[in-house]
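Table S2 (text version). Query chain:
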Amino acid sequence: MANNRGDGSIYQAKDKNGKPIPNCWRISVSFGSAGGDRQRVQCTVRGTKAEAKKKRDEIRRQHEEGLAIDAGKVTVSEFIETWLEARQTTGKVSEFTIKNYHARLKTIEPYIGKKKLNKVTAAEIERAYAQLKAKKSLSDTTLNKLHILLKSVFEKACDYDLILRNPCNKVESPSVDKPDRKSLTQEEGATLLHKLDLEEARIIQEMDEKEERQVKKGNQFGRSSIRGLANLGFTIGTRIALATGLHRGEVFGLTWKNVNLRQNTITVAQTLTKEGEIKDPKTGAGRRTISIDESTAAHLRMWRKRQREELAKLAIKLGDATPVCCSERGEWVNLANFERWWRSFRDDAGFEGLRFHELRHSQATLLLANGTDLKTVQDRMGHANGAITLNWYAHAIPENDQKAAQLVGNLFGTPSKRTQRGQSKIINLVENSPHAETFREKPDAVGLALA
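Corresponding structure-token output:
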């Protein structure tokens, strides 16, 4: 380990004419062994000589603690940019995610951005969170996401020897608001499926009527788009979500290569993002193959036949790479367009406020409520472990709670013959006890004895 060479020197700075500059000091501190590499740190301090000595001692302390010598020069804002660049260089996060990180971290920069990294305290971070919540009306969930990012930034600063410890470790993490998720009942699910059938029939009728007009004009082939094809695909995607519990991006990232209608399975191998990009599942558990019911499989067979006919009008041949739910041009759908369709459809169907993700929530809840084992539900949902499944979906269901109460009653409510004989024995002993009179005067004592 390198040894310090003396305490370091402090002398009054001079101008170009060699005249001393009032209240200006030059500091020079050398580190390293006599026969090895040596490092010299020099800087200028304006102020009293006592302040210069304080700066010299700080340089020595940083070296002794293993910190980078220039640690005290880097501000929070500057290091945030360094952190973002490092994250982008890894290639593990998309450009959209980097922009999202940057936007979140920007919210706290007005409060601690200009401070030196090594001067930020846990108390200052907590005050910043409180001000953001009050002035920006940020939710606890949003603050929690910011906290996770900021903690990662300071952790990297520790790795770079710019700070000794992460101030975020002493900050209580803002709580996450657990969303009030709606879960469809079996009856509501059946109603939604019926409404989908009606919507699908309506769209097909409109498409057929338009097609008749196109045929009369001689325009049935060579077109660039098919009106209604995307909306028809949206009904198919909603049907798949009801049957599988897939995420929205997983549903609309499916190609026909992922659908096996001989074995009635769907394989999740990729996901469609809001930006229209195809990405791998976030975790290994997200890449999965799940079964579908025969009714859904039969519907997909009919849809594939219809889709093949519609795409032929665009001179597109349906194949393994064709999206199961395609746009009017036979390409990946625009998820923003889907959201507009979904809000209109669900409101007209009498399901105002129902979020598409709640179809996934409904499947998991109903499966668990009807006795499906946790491991199966976990695998269908693509959760890395069963704890995630339980945390999100195994909430109390009134009917099941009543069944549980009845089960406990059945287990403990009817005493066995052996227990009855034992209780009779205790009662006889009590009656023949020298203290029998006490028990007669205080009947509760009998119950205490039985206990």
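Notes on Table S2: The CA atoms of residues 296 and 302 lie 10 Å apart. The chain is about 55% helix and 10% strand.
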